[in-house]
Amino acid sequence: MGxxxxxxxxxxxxxxxxxxxxxxxxxxxxxxxxxRKIADKAGFTSSTAYNYFKDLSHLKFFAAMRFMSDYxxxxxxxxxxxxxxxxxxxxxxxCFCKHSFAQxxxxxxIFMDNLGSIPEELLEHYYQIYQNDLIGLPDEVKDIxxxxxxxxxxxxxxxxxxxxxxxxxxxxxxxxxMTLLIWKGMMNTxxxxxRNYTQEExxxxxxxxxxxxxxxxxxxxxxDEIKVSYTKIDT
Length: 235
Fold this sequence. Notes:
Elements: H1 5-28, H2 35-42, H3 46-52, H4 56-65, H5 69-80, H6 85-100, H7 104-111, H8 119-129, H9 139-146, H10 150-158, H11 160-163, H12 169-191, H13 199-217
Helix pairs in contact: 1-2, 1-4, 4-7, 5-6, 6-13, 7-12, 10-12, 12-13
């Protein structure tokens, strides 16, 4: 059954505001993100914008998603470098750190900011309304945001490492949670300027702690098979 005229109009308006929000981020940065600027750019009033988004943070969240495309385009090349699940997982972290520390405020909006509700519920709500055109992004991005729980995705990714005899099943959840918390801790440090790390230093420090954490759960007899390593840098 085709969409009703009302549904088509609603989706079109969603895209107007999302396109305008993306332009505001590109031109002024995410720090200068206001509903009035977005509404003006879209050619509507602020109150109209609120008819389509419950909260400004929701609009910011979906607009920020559009800035993940560079990371997603580069990720397959990083994964190809790995010869086993653990190496592929470490390389995926390297790609994620490279892009997230290049745009910390964008990635913070997606993975750290308070959205007023848990991301899964937020995504489900908007997906029910705009399911034919969620945010104008490729399917790979939709897959990522609809499975928003980063640690859960990470756990699913490294699950084959159990079959490959690198680690025990009991370690999967712990290592996926721990590595996410390491990244969040460094991201919070950078954004709040608690330490004067460069983008490269933040990336290297995070990868070092991620690597050390995972090596703690790798079975001793399998450690030599992991050819990827990251060292601590002097800061």
